[in-house]
Amino acid sequence: MDDLELAHYLADKADALSLPAFRAQDFSVSQKPDMTPVTDVDRAVEHALREIIVDNRPDDSLYGEEFGASGESARRWIIDPIDGTKNFVRGVPVYATLIGLYEGATPLLGMVSAPALGRRWWGTPDGGAFLRFDGDDRQISVSEVSELADASLAFSSLSGWRDLGRRDAFISLTDQVWRLRGYGDFWSYMLVAEGAVDIAAEPELELYDMAALVPIVQAAGGVFTDVDGRPGPFGPNAVASNGHLHQAALEKLA
Q: Mean pLDDT across the chain, nearest whole number?
C-alpha cells in the first residue's frame, strides 16, 4: 500500500482502539511528569501504530508523544495517539489521532481521525485536502475572508498566552474579529482547512500536536506558522489561517 493508504489503515486501527474505550469510559488515567494526563488508551494506540509502521515501513523513523523517537531516517512518521486527552477522559468527543509523515522538514501527508465526531481529514501536497463525514468524502479548502472584522477565530487557551507574554496582544486580536470560539486542539485547525474558521492560534504546542495538521491546512490552501511567522510545525506555538489574514493576525500577536 502507498503512504496515504497506510495512513488510513493506521487511522482505522487507532479508531478501533480508542472509540470503544471512549464510549465506555473504560480506561486508566495517570499523570506524566509535565503534569498532563495520559491513559492506557494513549499508550495502546501509539504502540499499535508503531508496530504497523515498523512492519510496513521498516526503514522509516518514528516520533510519538508517548514513546519518543526511534530510527535515524529523514523520512519520519510523527504520531499523537490521542490529541485532546483531557477531553477524552471527561467524555468530550473532541479528540483525535494525529498522523504526520515528513521527509526532513518537508510534509508528505497529514491524517487526523476523530471517531467520536464521525470525521476524518487528510491532505497531501499534490493531492489536496479532504474531509470524510458520515461515509462521504469531499475536498475542502480555506475561506476567502480577507478582513479581520469579518473573520472567525478559534483558540484553546488564554493562560498560555499570558505565559507567553502575549495575552494582551491575543485579546487585542479577539477584539478585532467578528467571531470567537474555543473549539481547541486539532479541531480549530481542521475548521480552518474546511473554511468554517478563518484563523486558529495556540500559544503552547509540541511537534506531535502540529505535524499532522500542517499538511492538511496547506493542502487546503492555508498557511501555518508559529507566532513569529516561521513556517511549519517546528516552533513552540501555532497560527493557522486562510492566508489572506495571516500577516494581520501575526502583527496583532507581535
A: 95
